[in-house]
Amino acid sequence: MGTKSFSEGLAGDYDRVTNINYIELLQSRMIDSPGKPRVTFEGSCEVMGKFDVLEHSRQIPLVSKKLASLLEECCGNSIQFIPAEVICRDGCIEDYSFINILNSEEIIDLAESSYVPIPGTQKPMTFRQVEIRSDAFQEHEIGRDLNYKSPVFVSERLANRIAEVVDRRQEFLPPQKALV
Fold first, then answer.
1. Closest among 72, 47, 42, 67 to 57, alpha carbons compared
2. Is residue 70 part of a domain?
3. What's the domain count of the chain?
């Protein structure tokens, strides 16, 4: 795209003081009256507006109007759109929304995945490699794992549709390539 990558300093800062607690957005339930969360970026409106997914300091996908339209078409009943205020160094962009993933199911095959457990438990703290259950995504195209809420997983079908529409697949990985 000819612009800085997020790894070169364009990742945004989610305003933890005035925004909804992002942990609520990891719970896979509808949020009533969430307000308009804001994320601040060092890039200009022109640069930031070229991305379909904006990286920031929390694990809630922040997507462009173009990607939101595709997600609504493919999985409207599995997500809630929360309009966001994207503050750039030279202005504000209103065409982005956080997506609140409403579907939570057992997606990760823990028996086949490689992970470091939380001390004293068998629950994953961090993954080395994620394997997806063969019966995942039977009813939904997008979701969070019941036991490990951080990553957003998408079906291969949705990953392919996203690849057709957006320049990057960041944040959204097809199940067999999902790494945390």
1. 42
2. yes
3. 2
pLDDT tens-digit map of 104-163: 999 999 999 999 989 998 888 888 999 999 999 988 999 999 888 888 899 999 988 988
Question: Are residues 29 and 51 located together in one domain of the fold?
Answer: yes
Q: Which of 101, 118, 142 is the last residue of a domain?
A: 101
Do both 42 and 109 map to the same domain?
no
Last residue in a domain, options 77, 101, 125 = 101
* Rounded Cα–Cα distance for residues 70 and 145 (Å): 22
Closest CA to 106 of 59, 71, 72, 138: 138
